[in-house]
Amino acid sequence: MLANHYNECNEIFWNEESFNYSLEEKRIWDMDKYWKLEYFLIKLCESLVGAETLNRELAANLYYLANSINLSISSHNDPEDYYFLEKFNQDEADECRDRLNHIMRILWGRIPFNYDYLIIANPLIQKDMANWVEGMKDLTGHIRVTNAGVD
Q1: Is the pTM for the entire model greater than 0.90?
Q2: What is the pLDDT of residues 7-20, one digit of tens each?
Q3: Per the structure, how many domains does the chain have?
Q4: pLDDT (tens digit, 9 = 90+) per residue, 59-95?
Q5: Which of the listed residues 16, 49, 66, 106 has the most CB atoms within 10 Å of its CB?
Q6: Full residue range of the structural domain in which residue 26 is found
């Protein structure tokens, strides 16, 4: 994925199948949609390594996206707000908020991108890593490691 595919970002962030749409319009907490959003954001982080700046539209959309998700969680937790999310799990929401804010700090350049423990906990990233390891196996089913690295 290239970072300049802003239409793809807009679709992932705002379309009717997105996590944010599920929160704002359907008022449903959907972990599968969250994992897909997070996976996309991780890939976006990866594609932006070394970039000096963010596209203005992308920066605005990232800000609004994170703000919207954080406010949805806060509103659900406020008994005077009358905003209720179906299928809401407080522990999941707390973990997702922490994970999302961590990724946003990476995107804003506050911390460097690497595959730290938060990133590799995403089940879709784990699937990517398992596929990569599987692709590195030789015919005997073992990973070949040489002095030059994985062979």
Answers
A1: no
A2: 788 889 999 999 99
A3: 1
A4: 999 999 999 999 999 999 888 888 889 999 999 999 9
A5: 106
A6: 6-118
